[in-house]
Amino acid sequence: MPVKVRLQREDFDAAAEAAEIARGRTDIGALVTFTGICRGAEAGEPISALTLDHYPGMAEAEIARHVEEAGSRWPLLGVTVIHRYGRIEPGHNIVLVVTASSHREAAFAAAEFLMDYLKTRAPFWKQVEGKTGPVWVDAKEADDAAAARWRKPAGREAAE
Predict the structure, then answer these.
(1) Confidence check: pLDDT of 59 > 70
(2) In percent, how much of the chain has pLDDT > 70?
(3) Average pLDDT across the chain, whole number
(4) DSSP conformation letters of 9-66
(5) Which of 40, 57, 118, 138 would you call most buried, defined as having the most Cβ atoms within 10 angstroms of its Cβ?
(6) How far is CA 43 from CA 39, 114, 130, in A?
(7) Structure pTM?
(8) pLDDT of residue 142
(9) What is the pLDDT confidence band of residue 122, given thresholds at 50, 70 and 90?
(10) 136 φ, ψ (degrees, to nearest 5)
(11) Which helix (H) or strand (E) holds 101?
């Protein structure tokens, strides 16, 4: 399964990344893309930007480990995860997850699994710039609850 995991400061082209996975392939029947975009508000307050920080090397390895887990749970034919770091202004891309499979169920489930992981467990730290200055953002209970649904033995989804 072709896999791309990249952390970068610069923006990405979601359509080009999705096209790259599918190019020349006739075994792919479903391609799911998710693009996370910086909102202009956090906790109901306007922000001017967010800053994402990470541990280089460790973050890529952890994301790759979860991509591998997704591949053991669902019959995937390709995965791309691109996550930006640094200062990102509202309206700009933050993250891209692309999953490819023969069937939509696997592609959708794997994309959701990977995004839930990225929101709750990936080694990133988020700071927002608001009216009162920069503030570090804590994890949200709703994100943890969404991720909890994936706590079952690997391989079960592929067998269902």
Answers:
(1) yes
(2) 89
(3) 90
(4) SS---HHHHHHHHHTT-SS--EEEEEEEE--SEETTEEEEEEEEEE-TTHHHHHHHHH
(5) 118
(6) 11, 24, 11
(7) 0.88
(8) 62
(9) confident
(10) -75, 140
(11) strand 93-101
Sequence-distant (≥ 6) Cβ neighbours of residue 22 within 8 angstroms: 28, 31, 78, 100
- How many angstroms separate the CA atoms of 120 and 48, rounded? 23
Q: Which two three-digit tokens encode residue 125?
A: 């730290």
One-letter amino acid for residue 102 of the chain: S
Phi, psi for 80 (deg, rounded to 5): -130, 130
Structure tokens at 67: 């991509």
Residue bearing the bigger pLDDT, 141 or 79: 79
Q: How many CB atoms lie within 10 A of CB 151?
A: 6
Mean pLDDT of 92-116: 97
Beta bridge partners of 45: 42
Rg value, the chain, Cα:
16
Place of tokens 């995860």: 81
Residue 80 contacts residue 96 (beta carbons within 8 Å): yes
